[in-house]
Design goal:
Blueprint lengths: L2 E7 L6 H11 E2 L2 E6 L6 H4 L3 E6 L2 E13 L5 E6 L3 E7 L6 E6 L15 H9 L4
Parallel strand pairs: 1-4
Antiparallel strand pairs: 1-8, 2-3, 3-6, 4-5, 5-6, 5-7
Length: about 130
């Protein structure tokens, strides 16, 4: 059975370095808490999966989902590992909130350096089917 994951837009991040900085700044005690309004209906299936970050219409990295916890203000925290793992970039449309994402095979780590390309250059190379 495929592992269930989430995708979420890293609003305001321009590249992988900006995403790394954001994750590092918001992490406490090796955990990252990502607030959301609603608990995913399939939250039990998501524990052990990953939260994939969309930056400029492509997925660049992920954090492992450890748990879901209720907040005092009625919202939910998605508790993730603070270690951001870069992945081989792949296109993904932006959306509001989070979306489920199923994979049969694990998304591999980005060793090619493609994730480091500026978003505009990546877009042009992708349109030419060069990446």
């Amino acid at each position: 059975m495929p592992q269930l994951h989430l995708t979420k837009v890293a609003f305001g991040c321009r590249d992988l370095d900006a995403l790394r900085s954001r994750v590092a700044a918001r992490s406490e005690n090796t955990q990252l808490r990502v607030p959301t309004r609603m608990r995913p209906k399939r939250s039990a299936e998501l524990v052990g999966g990953n939260l994939y970050w969309i930056v400029k219409h492509r997925v660049l990295g992920c954090n492992q989902i450890l748990a879901f916890e209720d907040r005092e203000d009625g919202r939910i925290n998605i508790v993730c590992s603070a270690e951001l793992e870069p992945v081989t970039p792949f296109p993904k449309r932006a959306h509001q909130g989070w979306r489920y994402f199923e994979t049969d095979a694990a998304v591999t780590a980005d060793e090619s350096g493609v994730g480091e390309l500026p978003p505009q250059l990546y877009g042009r190379l992708s349109a030419l089917a060069l990446v």
